[in-house]
Amino acid sequence: MESPPHRALPAAAYALGGVSGLLLALQIWTIALWSAAFAAASTQGERVDYYLAHFPLGLGRLGASNLTWLSAGVGTVGFVAAVVAARRLTGAGRALSIGLAVANAVLVLWYGFTMM
């Protein structure tokens, strides 16, 4: 007798969707920090200094380019988590996961564009 195909628990898929949502929120926070830096300073150098100085956990020492790479990595992980969740969910959970995947993908593409 064959066992039924392995299906991930819906709770695990919802957890992946939650991880994707948290990673998206982190990226939005980073963009909001850059927006605050843009409003607080008048030159590009001052904006970058403000942005890096207000980054938590000493991550500002990585520099703007490395933080952009880090954000792209966070977005990629968020995208993959959302895609995996969407494949395992149905209905509203699937739609939300697809939305998270699209949002993360758009941000990753944006990061790539800004690094050109």
Coarse structural class: mainly alpha
> What's the helix-strand series?
HHHH
Rg (C-alpha, Å): 18 Å
Helical stretch tally: 4
User: What's the β-strand tally?
Assistant: 0
Q: Give the biggest sheet.
A: none
Q: What is the global morphology?
A: elongated
Mean pLDDT: 90
Approximately how much beta-strand content do the residues carry?
under 5%
Helix content: over 70%
Low-confidence stretches: none
Q: Kindly report how far apart the N and C termini lie.
A: 56 Å
Give a short overview.
This protein is mainly α. The chain is built from four helices and no strands.
Key features?
116 residues; 4 helices; 78% helix; elongated
Describe the structure in your own words:
With 116 residues, the protein is an all-alpha fold. Helix content is 78%, strand content 0%. Helix 1 crosses helix 2 (44-53), helix 1 (10-40) runs antiparallel to helix 3 (64-88) and helix 1 (10-40) runs parallel beside helix 4 (91-114).
Layout of helices and strands, plus pairs?
Blueprint: H1 10-40, H2 44-53, H3 64-88, H4 91-114
Helix pairs in contact: 1-2, 1-3, 1-4, 3-4
